[in-house]
Each structure stands twice: as structure tokens, then as C-alpha cells.
């Protein structure tokens, strides 16, 4: 096989592996429908649909208000703490929704820390409950709203930065006040970007399992899990998963399309944004609006986790914790390296033949990011069972092995590695490739001698991004892990489901610390974009 | 009569099916000869160099290098086997390699690599820069390195795609003189693409004009 056919063939093989579990899940729609399906259809499917819908609407309202408002304030106004808020507003992204759900339960339950604190401060009776019950759909809405609003904040901030100062000035001359400029110019102009960010939030909400399971909210993901593990009916579980997959697919398409409609002010008349200095009450109000989501989505859970960890007096630092940490680190590094290698390899193939079908295939490979981990796990289990019918002949059993788990991780996180390496490639001029080819370096030689060294930072970033996502992944790990094999996410889930919150603190803190890696990278980008903005 | 280093016969090429970028082009360059192609932006002159280098495949025609067909019907020799040099306006130096490593890249498997690199460093008067990296030297120096790198594998002939357009007048003049001396010394055949008539006259023996993909 010559070099070029290898570059063409390999992305196709990767695409087949990536789409096989999804195809298996979708194919269940054309299979048999059992009695369990009829039961689900008659009694609970409507509940799944209505609670998922209500959840999505509630989360949408919160993320739209918090995300757009904070982005508008930090982009257009100068006030105390603005520099800090610009990047700190994305901190809640480091907290997976299920961890926020666990800490909120610990805080706001009848005998949770928040209620206890208020009771002791005001000397109230033990039966008095100040904060309402959080274990319901409203609690879930708050949890998702305050962990996912940064998706909207990020796209809005970036879109607001690109809005021209002269456009806003023209609006003011034509009679708009500050809030009208926001609602009638600011928001309509960023609508496509806003929709894109919102679709990401909706996909994440629909994909979640840990938080809705903890709050006992009946959604598609909890339904799939119960059908499989409660009724032991994988066929019906896959049929339910197909419905969710189609729904997520629709949001994915909307998100992709919204990117093409983003308005740009980068023309000759563009003049950069300006900041209005706020003082006194207005400055305090801006501070409060920006501080509140960080407090709810990041500081509060962190404080609670630290308190829990101190309460067990370092007893968490056991052999089991170290073992689970090593399992998690090992898996995340392995997945990070595989993803980075695949992304490098496929982007190089696209680079060699930019007009070919490989480029279209390459963008399809990123679809795994939108697929809920639970669905991926369902499809992967079926795929492994099918493959085992061949491999058992040579004494290899794939079901329940790490192969399925790592493959699912790779499919789910490939998009992160790809985006980093793709943007790295955009910075390498094609004339570098031309020179390399003329100087006798082609194929592997060009990849290893020229591209790989130039993409060092992008490769490292992609490994880190993938690692932080793998550490957080719960449903796929829960289903695909080998018997008795635990990761930090799994042990957090097990402790929390047994109401052993104090023990859940250590693995949860470890997950948050790893989750901070992409946040630090993102905040660096935000700070550098501010410098560019000031230098324009 | 000396033998042709480059021979192009009835070459046609288009990026889109309905619009020809190069139409029935014929060129012959003999050993040691320096030829320039003059024309405005977008007339197809850089495309011609990309076709000779093998970065694009023509729809029709024949390209011969040193009397060997590198493109014909059912024949295509990839760029790294054509042994031609190319210098472009943006230099395209490898940013992660030192100046000496950049120059030696094309002869990395040669046992004489060190000798070749040192000779070129001396020839282009850039010995002091050999341990530096591209971002640490000036634009004029970078262009000298790009020339030296393209000459290291002793190509059959050199193609220059607007290599002087990013330099100021004073730098250009010095480089013109140095290069003419080197071309003569090494007996290089050169195909220069430029929009600057004065530059074409200084650097080459023969000037050909190109307009809308046709040579005149």
C-alpha cells in the first residue's frame, strides 16, 4: 500500500468505527418492539418527554439571562473586578452537573449545611426549613443553568467584542438608550452565535445522567438506564436511546447551521468596542450580577466539597482513592494520546488532499461529542457483543474489557482533540508543505519532521482537553467499565447514591481540579483576546 | 546548442471546469538560461510554477525536466522526485529548525551535508546566523536562507515566485547582485515570476509576458 492510499483509507476506517455504535442504536428502531416498550409508551414516555422539555425550557431561561447579561456587562463596561470576571465567569464549566447536584443536596437538604447554618444563626427550631427542597426538577434546572451558562457567555462575549463601536453610537444617535442598545442591537446581531451556544447547553442537558438521576427527575437518560438495568431489556433501552439520539441530532444540526449565519463587523468601517466606566451603585450592581453565577456555580460547591473533605480528616486518602485516581489518570492519558494521534493523522490526510471526501468525513468524526455518553455506551455494548462472536474463537473477550470503554471515550472526545489540532494546522502555511515536498520530505517524513514539531503545543492542548473530559465522564464509564474497576467519577457517583457525601468529596475535588485545566487554557485565551482588543 | 532543462508543451490547466487558468502554454529553458514570466496578479504565473513543481496536475500537456517527462498522459512524478528548487515571497522557512538545519533539510541524508551547508552559508554571507532561528533574523536575511535552502540539493533549475517583493529597494539591489553572481558561478537555470519589469530585466536574459493564462 503506498503512502497516499494509507492516508485515504485510514480516515474511512476510523469513521466506520466511530459511527458503528450509533448505527447499531438507530437500527433498533426497525427491530422488534417488546411489551416493555408498550408499557413505556403508555405510562412513562410522556413523562420523559414532558420533564425533558420542561428541564430544557427552564435551563434555557437561566443560561440566556445569565450568559448574555454577564457577557454584555464585561464587554461594554469597566467596573471593579471586571478583569477577574472576564475569565472567572467560565469557572463553573469545571464542575460537572452531577457534582453540583451532590453538593447542593448536601447544602440545601432539610438538615443540610445551609439550613443548619441559618437555624443556628437565628436560633431557629430544628423543624424549620429555610431553603426549599432541591431534589426535584427545579433543583435540576438551577444545577444545569449555573454549570452550563458559560457556553452562552463564551459565544456572546466573543460576538459582543466583534460588534462595532460605531454601530452602537449610530443606535444611540437614533434614539436608543443603553438597555435598548442591548435588546435591539446587541442581542439581534449575535442571534446565530447565541443559538449555537444554546444548542450546546440543550445537548448537554439532555445528555446528562448523574444530576437527573440524583434528583430523581424522569428524563430519557434515566429511563434508558432503568430500562436496561431494571428491566434488563436492552432492545427497548436502545429504542429509547434512538429517540434521544434523533432529538440531539436535530439540535446538533441547528448548532452547526447557526455557525454559518454569524454576523461579522470586520469590514472597513469597523471600529473596536469601547468601555463605559461605571461608578457607585451601578458598579456594585455590575459586580453583583457577575459574582452571583460564579458563587452559585463554582464557589459554593467548592467550599462545600472542601468542608466535607476536612470533616473526614484526610481519611479519604486511602488505597482505594489512590487506585481510582491511577485508573482515571491512566485511562485519560491513554484516551488523550489516541485522540491526539488520530486527530493529527486525519488532519494531515485532509491537508494532503484538501478537496477530497476526507475533509467531509473528518467533520463527521466530531459528531461523537454531541452524543450522550449513555447512548454511546448502549451502542458500544451491542457492538462488542457482536465482535465477541468472532474474537472468542481466538480466546479474546471484548465485552467488559477496557477496549470498549476507551473506544467510547475516544469517540466522545475526539472533537476536542480535533478542534485544537485543526486550529494549529490553520496557522501552518501551505508553502511550508510545498518547500518540504520539494526538499524530499513527504508523507510520514513531513508529518514527523515538520508538522508534529510545529504542532507541539496544539498536540499537548488536545491531550489535556481530552483528559479533562474523560475524567468527568460518568454514564459511559458506569456501563462499560470492567467488573470492579472504578474511576473517580464512578466512585463519586457510588458514594453519592449511597448518601455518603463526605466520602464523595475527595474524588469530586480531584475531578474539579482536572476540569480546571481547559478552563485555565480558555481563560488564557480570553486574557490574550482582551489584550488584542485593547491594542486595536 | 545546450540541452533544455525545462520543456513545456501545450500545457493547459484550470481550477474550475469552465475557466482555463493556463491555456496551451509552451516554454523551453536551456541550461544556464534565466527566464522571467511577467504579468499582473491572477494571470496564472504562480500556477505555472506549481504545475512544474508538481503541486497541481495539469489537464493537458507535457512537462519535461532534464529531458525526462515528469508529466504527460498517464505519467506524474511527485514533487519530491522532480529535483527543482522553489523560493516564494513568504520564504516558508521551517520555524522550528535553525538556519543551518533549514539549509541542510533537503540534503539531510547526504554524507556531505555539512560541507554543502557551510558552502552555502559562506556563499550567501550568513555564517553568523547558522545557529539562529528564522524569527530571530531580518526579512532580507530570511530570504537569503530561503535561497540557500533551495540550492542545497543542487536542483536542475530554480523557480522564483516573486521572491523580492517583500524587500525594500536597497536590500533588493544587494540581493540581485549577489544572486546573479551565484547563479553564474553555479550555472543555475532560473525561471522567475514577477510583476516588476525592471526586476525581470536585471535578473533574467529573456522576458515572457503572460495574460489571462496565455503567453505572448
CATH homologous superfamily assignment of the largest domain in chain A: MetI-like
Identify low-pLDDT runs of chain A.
Answer: 264-270, 532-536
Give the overall pLDDT of chain B as a whole number: 89
Order of helices and strands of chain A: HHEHHHHHHHHHHEHHHHHHHHHHH
Structure annotation, total helices of chain A: 23
Tell me what the structure shows.
The complex is a heterodimer of chains A (536) and B (216). With 536 residues, chain A is mainly α. Chain A folds into 2 domains: 1-25 and 313-497, MetI-like fold (Orthogonal Bundle), CATH 1.10.3720.10; 58-217 and 244-311, MetI-like (MetI-like fold). Chain A has 23 helices and 2 strands. Chain A has helices at 3-27, 35-76, 82-88, 97-108, 113-121, 137-161, 165-173, 178-189, 191-207, 210-214, 220-229, 234-260, 280-311, 319-352, 357-364, 373-391, 402-426, 430-438, 443-454, 456-472, 475-480, 488-497, 501-535; strands at residues 77-78, 276-277. In chain A, strands 1-2 form a two-stranded parallel sheet. The longest helix of chain A has 42 residues, at 35-76. The relative contact order of chain A is 0.13. Chain B is built from 6 helices and 11 strands. Chain B is globular, with a radius of gyration of 17 Å. Helices cover 30% and strands 28% of the residues of chain B. In chain B, the strands form 2 sheets. Chain B has a 6-stranded mixed β-sheet with strand order 7-8-9-3-10-11, sandwiched between helices. In chain B, strands 2-1-4-5-6 form a 5-stranded antiparallel β-sheet, covered by helices on one side. Chain B has helices at residues 45-53, 99-104, 113-123, 139-151, 169-186, 197-203, and strands at 4-13, 22-30, 34-38, 60-65, 68-72, 75-76, 85-88, 157-161, 189-194, 206-211, 214-215. Chain B is an alpha/beta fold and 216 residues long. Classes of the chains: A mainly alpha (536), B alpha/beta (216). The interface between A and B is medium-sized, with 16 and 24 residues.
Amino acid at each position: 500500500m503506498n503512502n497516499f492510499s494509507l492516508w485515504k483509507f485510514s480516515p474511512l476506517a476510523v469513521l466506520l468505527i466511530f459511527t458503528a455504535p450509533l448505527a447499531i442504536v438507530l437500527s433498533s428502531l426497525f427491530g422488534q418492539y417488546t411489551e416493555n416498550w408498550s408499557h413505556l409508551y403508555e405510562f412513562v414516555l410522556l413523562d420523559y418527554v414532558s420533564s425533558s422539555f420542561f428541564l430544557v425550557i427552564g435551563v434555557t431561561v437561566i443560561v440566556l439571562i445569565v450568559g448574555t447579561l454577564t457577557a454584555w456587562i464585561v464587554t461594554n463596561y469597566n467596573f471593579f473586578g471586571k478583569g477577574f470576571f472576564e475569565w472567572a465567569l467560565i469557572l463553573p464549566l469545571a464542575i460537572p452537573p452531577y457534582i453540583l447536584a451532590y453538593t447542593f443536596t448536601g447544602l440545601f437538604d432539610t438538615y443540610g449545611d445551609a439550613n443548619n447554618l441559618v437555624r443556628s444563626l437565628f436560633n431557629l427550631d430544628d423543624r424549620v426549613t429555610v431553603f426549599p427542597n432541591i431534589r426535584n426538577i427545579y433543583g435540576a434546572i438551577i444545577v444545569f443553568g449555573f454549570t452550563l451558562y458559560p457556553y452562552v457567555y463564551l459565544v456572546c462575549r466573543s460576538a459582543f467584542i466583534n460588534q462595532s463601536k460605531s454601530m452602537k453610537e449610530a443606535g444611540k444617535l437614533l434614539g436608543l438608550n443603553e438597555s435598548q442598545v442591548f435588546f435591539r442591537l446587541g442581542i439581534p446581531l449575535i442571534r446565530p452565535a447565541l443559538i449555537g451556544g444554546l444548542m450546546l447547553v440543550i445537548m448537554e442537558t439532555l445528555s446528562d445522567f448523574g444530576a437527573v438521576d440524583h434528583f430523581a427527575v424522569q428524563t430519557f437518560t434515566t429511563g434508558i438506564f432503568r430500562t436496561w438495568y431494571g428491566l434488563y431489556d436492552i432492545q427497548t433501552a436502545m429504542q429509547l436511546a434512538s429517540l434521544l439520539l434523533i432529538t440531539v441530532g436535530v439540535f446538533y444540526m441547528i448548532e452547526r447551521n447557526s455557525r454559518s449565519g454569524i454576523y461579522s463587523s470586520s469590514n472597513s468601517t469597523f471600529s473596536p468596542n469601547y468601555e463605559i466606566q461605571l461608578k457607585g451603585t451601578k458598579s456594585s450592581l455590575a459586580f453583583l450580577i457577575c459574582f452571583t453565577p460564579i458563587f452559585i456555580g463554582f464557589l459554593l460547591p467548592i467550599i462545600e466539597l472542601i468542608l466535607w473533605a476536612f470533616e473526614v480528616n484526610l481519611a479519604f486518602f486511602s488505597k482505594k482513592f489512590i487506585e481510582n485516581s491511577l485508573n482515571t489518570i491512566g485511562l485519560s492519558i491513554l484516551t488523550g494520546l489516541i485522540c491526539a494521534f488520530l486527530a493529527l493523522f486525519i488532519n494531515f490526510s485532509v491537508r494532503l488532499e484538501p478537496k477530497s471526501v476526507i475533509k467531509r468525513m473528518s467533520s463527521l468524526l466530531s459528531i461523537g461529542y454531541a452524543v450522550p455518553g449513555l447512548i454511546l455506551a448502549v451502542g458500544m455494548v451491542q457492538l462488542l457483543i457482536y465482535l465477541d462472536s468472532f474474537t472468542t474463537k481466538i480466546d479474546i473477550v471484548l465485552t467488559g474489557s477496557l477496549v470498549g470503554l476507551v473506544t467510547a471515550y475516544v469517540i466522545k472526545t475526539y472533537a476536542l482533540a480535533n478542534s485544537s489540532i485543526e486550529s494549529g494546522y490553520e496557522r501552518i502555511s501551505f508553502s511550508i508543505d510545498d518547500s518540504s515536498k520539494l526538499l524530499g520530505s513527504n508523507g510520514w517524513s513531513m508529518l514527523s519532521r515538520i508538522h508534529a514539531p510545529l504542532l507541539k503545543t496544539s498536540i499537548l492542548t488536545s491531550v489535556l482537553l481530552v483528559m479533562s473530559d474523560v475524567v468527568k465522564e460518568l454514564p459511559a464509564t458506569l456501563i462499560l467499565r470492567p467488573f470492579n474497576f472504578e474511576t473517580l467519577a464512578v466512585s463519586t457517583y457510588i458514594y453519592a447514591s449511597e448518601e455518603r457525601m463526605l466520602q464523595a468529596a475527595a474524588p469530586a475535588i480531584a475531578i474539579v481540579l482536572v476540569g480546571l485545566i481547559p478552563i485555565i487554557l480558555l481563560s488564557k485565551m480570553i486574557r490574550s483576546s482582551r489584550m488584542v482588543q485593547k491594542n486595536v | 546548442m545546450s540541452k533544455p532543462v525545462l520543456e513545456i508543451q501545450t500545457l493547459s490547466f484550470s481550477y474550475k471546469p469552465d475557466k482555463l487558468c493556463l491555456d496551451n502554454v509552451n516554454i523551453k529553458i536551456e541550461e544556464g538560461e534565466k527566464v522571467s514570466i511577467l504579468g499582473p496578479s491572477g494571470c496564472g504565473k504562480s500556477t505555472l510554477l506549481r504545475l512544474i513543481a508538481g503541486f497541481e496536475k495539469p489537464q493537458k500537456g507535457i512537462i519535461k525536466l532534464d529531458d525526462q517527462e515528469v508529466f504527460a498522459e498517464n505519467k506524474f512524478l511527485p514533487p519530491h522526485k522532480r529535483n527543482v528548487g522553489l523560493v516564494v515571497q513568504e520564504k516558508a522557512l521551517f520555524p522550528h529548525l535553525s538556519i543551518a538545519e533549514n539549509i541542510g533539510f533537503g540534503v539531510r541524508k547526504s554524507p556531505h551535508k555539512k560541507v554543502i551547508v557551510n558552502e552555502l552559508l559562506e556563499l550567501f554571507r550568513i555564517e553568523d546566523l547558522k545557529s539562529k532561528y528564522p524569527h530571530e533574523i531580518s526579512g532580507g536575511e530570511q530570504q537569503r536562507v530561503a535561497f540557500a535552502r533551495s540550492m542545497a540539493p543542487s536542483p536542475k533549475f530554480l523557480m522564483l515566485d516573486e521572491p523580492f517583493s517583500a524587500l525594500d529597494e536597497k536590500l533588493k539591489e544587494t540581493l540581485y547582485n549577489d544572486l546573479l553572481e551565484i547563479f553564474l558561478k553555479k550555472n543555475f537555470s532560473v525561471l522567475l515570476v514577477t510583476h516588476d519589469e525592471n526586476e525581470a530585466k536585471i535578473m533574467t536574459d529573456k522576458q515572457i509576458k503572460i495574460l489571462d493564462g496565455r503567453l505572448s
